[in-house]
Design goal:
The protein contains four helices and five strands. By secondary structure, the protein is an alpha+beta fold. The chain is globular. Bound molecules: zinc ion. Zinc ion binds next to loops. Zinc ion (ZN) binds next to loops.
């Protein structure tokens, strides 16, 4: 993508606010796949805080907000690093993208917020939310339960 195309895509999809930039997109089975990568590489080891050495890249797929009514997946190409500190318990780690998603989450933070808003404010059904996101009923239901528990617990 040219810089201008990427800027337009990042502005429309608001990925500009998440610290990732769009590198490509595709449609497969009614899902919109958005490829992106972090704008800045951050090699900081989450355990020891020292900078690691670039090893390779891995894809992390996250359910994101529907784009123009279609279920959407972000496919983020994340750099993976080797920790250079022999005393560190971590050997390999991938870059964290805290603004996009919690470390083990399968949906983006903004999508998690969207799910709760649709259920709590718009009184949408779990089935309707699941259909909009291209997820199963059980997945959305357990996401909603865990998000609500986190909220109640004050995290
Ligand atoms: Zn380390």
């Amino acid at each position: 993508m040219t810089d201008t195309t990427a800027l337009v895509a990042d502005t429309i999809c608001r990925t500009v606010e998440l610290g990732v930039t769009i590198t490509g997109a595709a449609i497969a089975e009614d899902r919109t796949w958005i490829d992106c990568r972090p704008v800045e590489a951050d090699p900081t080891c989450p355990t020891c805080g020292r900078p690691g050495r670039l090893r390779d890249h891995v894809d992390r797929v996250l359910t994101d907000l529907p784009v123009v009514g279609h279920p959407t997946r972000l496919r983020i190409q994340l750099p993976r690093f080797t920790c250079i500190d022999d005393g560190c318990e971590v050997t390999i780690f991938r870059q964290r993208i805290e603004a996009v998603a919690a470390p083990k989450a399968t949906t983006t933070r903004r999508c998690a917020r969207w799910i709760l808003q649709r259920l709590a404010i718009d009184k949408m059904s779990v089935s309707a939310v699941a259909r909009a996101l291209g997820l199963g009923w059980n997945t959305v239901n357990s996401l909603a339960v865990s998000l609500a528990s986190e909220f109640v617990a004050g995290h």
